[in-house]
Amino acid sequence: MTTNEPDLTIKKEELKEALAPSGNVFDIFVRGARKGWNIGVNNLIPNILMAYVIAYILNILGVMDFIGHWCGPLMALLGLPGEALIVLLTVWLSCSAGVGVAAAFFTQGVLEPVHITILMPAFILMGSQLQYMGRLLGTADVPKKYWPLLMVISIVNAVIGMILMRVVLLFF
Amino acid sequence: MDKREEERLTRLPKVGWKGYAALIFAILFFAGIFASIQQAEWLRAFDFSTLIGKFGNMASEKATFVGMGGVSARGGFLFALSLVPSVMLAVGAVEVLSHFGALTAAQKLMTPLLRPIMDVPGFVGLTLITDMQSTDAGAALTKELYDEKLIDKREQTIIAAWQYSGAGMINNYFAIVGALFSYALVPIVIPLLIIFVLKFFGAVVCRIVLDTVYKGDFAHDDK
Q1: Residues of B in contact with A156 (CB under 8 A)
Q2: How far is A33 from chain B, CA to nearest CA, in Å?
Q3: Are residues B73 and A51 in contact, defined by beta-carbon separation less than 8 angstroms?
Q4: Are the C-beta atoms of residues B129 and B119 closer than 8 Å to each other?
Q5: Which of A150, B17, B19, B34 is the most buried (most CB within 10 A)?
Q6: With pLDDT > 90 as the criterion, what percentage of chain B qualifies?
Q7: Contact B151/B124 with Cβ under 8 angstroms?
Q8: What is the pLDDT of residues B22-41, one digit of tens each?
């Protein structure tokens, strides 16, 4: 999640470690939980704090009502309120920030559990596309000509994912 | 490229029964099935959503330490803090399940499907599995395969399509979206399955577009 230039050389040991970490089970769990703590402190808390502040500002300015009103019909196709468009746009820029906005909207009562559930595949399928352009497509050396295609595919995937979640919800 | 190098990039891992058992356990652990079997309540001891536990109540019986009606920076901070335990538990559990080979088992299972579905060689499985854990490492492996001439530009683009939509899906899902798991109305393994299947769908769409719209680009591209 850092924006620093990552070290991309893969050593065999690192790959093995990522796919099957070694050590005793308790140590491995603690190492993972520590990763989770670092994500929580370095990523989750700052992102959600920012999202809460932005959501509060949007609320004070009345932007939320405006977007909720005008994007309502479009988002209704996915079973979501209009404000969910803000979540999706944010997710595209940064997955963590998008999740933060969703959490903030949830607390404000704009999104309900059913909406969060529908959004879940989209957080991943169209998440952080902007930064992954460099980190993934650039690094993997995919010809720039095909980047728009891959981006459209991701967004289509996200839309299909949300529709599938609506279908799945019929059974719960 | 020497033989050893080629073997390093393409070799299928050995998967014992432990790997498959870990994969099955991983699915059951996150699927929420163990929480709902009434005849065997003890199974809840192996259920993720049960193990997240709960915070104690404030005297009002309704509010946790987050309180009620908090807004903006302060409200957001306490709320985010309340999400940290579920992320720690999820990432810790994924780490342990990877240790028992759940991911290598998944790699082995998907290898025979790669040629018919995506029209890429089976050995690409390692690259795809790596991407599920780490966006950067997955991307680096893709480039390596191309540089070593094990795949061509067309295959590289199809692989990138698979990787790009939902990059780092396991880590991002459990570590970031994990913050919202407690609001999910369906077992949290279902969205993950949908994501996984749609990654293949995206790759197939990419394959079709490359073979039709951009057909000319690859006419003289020999492997």
Answers
A1: 202, 205
A2: 4
A3: no
A4: no
A5: A150
A6: 28
A7: yes
A8: 989 888 888 878 887 778 88
Confidence of residue A23 (pLDDT cuts 50, 70, 90): confident
User: Which pLDDT does position A52 carry in this prediction?
Assistant: 82
Q: Give me the residue spans of the domains in chain A.
A: 12-169
Section B188-215 average pLDDT:
95
User: pLDDT digit string (tens) for A58-75?
Assistant: 878 888 788 888 889 999
Angstrom distance (rounded) from CA A13 to CA A38: 23
* Sole residue written with tokens 């990787």: B163
Distance of CA B85 to the CA centre of its chain: 20
CA-to-CA distance for B110 and B196, rounded, in angstroms? 11
Nearest-Cα distance to chain A for B85, in Å, is 8
Closest-CA residue of B relative to A106 is: B183
Sketch the domain layout of chain B as residue ranges: 16-218
CA dist., res. B202 & res. A45, Å (int): 32
Instruction: Give residue-wise pLDDT tens across range B212-221.
Output: 999 888 865 5
CB proximity list for A22: less than 8 A, separation 6 or greater: A16, A28, B99
